[in-house]
Automatic annotation (TrEMBL):
Residues 25-81 form the DUF4325 domain. It comes from the Bacteria. This is DUF4325 domain-containing protein.
Length: 109
């Protein structure tokens, strides 16, 4: 199991969506910590308790995972969002971003 505590392993203050908005961007978190942990295999626990987040940051950090090759089934099985207190609402938002990020497959007849 790999454990990522965002407040300790990344930053107590999160930034914008993209790297060009600063070192604490969602893109930096996703690409530098979360994706490498998921690619190693096994379970990944992300503790979100501590920092404050914008919905845009959460969407960028977690909502784009399927675009990077992870399925919703794989993420449901291996990615655990740990949240204490009111952060449980943030965890619900993250789960929603992950589930809504299913790629749209168009069918041609």
């Amino acid at each position: 199991m790999i454990r990522i505590d965002i407040g300790k392993d990344f930053s107590q203050v999160t930034g914008g969506r993209r790297r060009d908005s600063g070192a604490h961007s969602a893109e930096a978190f996703r690409d530098d910590l979360l994706v490498p942990a998921l690619r190693r295999g096994g379970r990944v626990v992300v503790d979100i308790t501590g920092p404050s987040y914008s919905m845009a940051w959460l969407e960028e950090a977690f909502g784009a995972l399927q675009d990077l090759g992870f399925t919703s089934e794989d993420l449901s099985d291996r990615l655990e969002i740990e949240a204490k207190g009111d952060y449980r609402y943030t965890a619900e938002a993250i789960r929603g971003y992950i589930l809504r990020s299913d790629p749209v497959v168009s069918s041609t007849e």
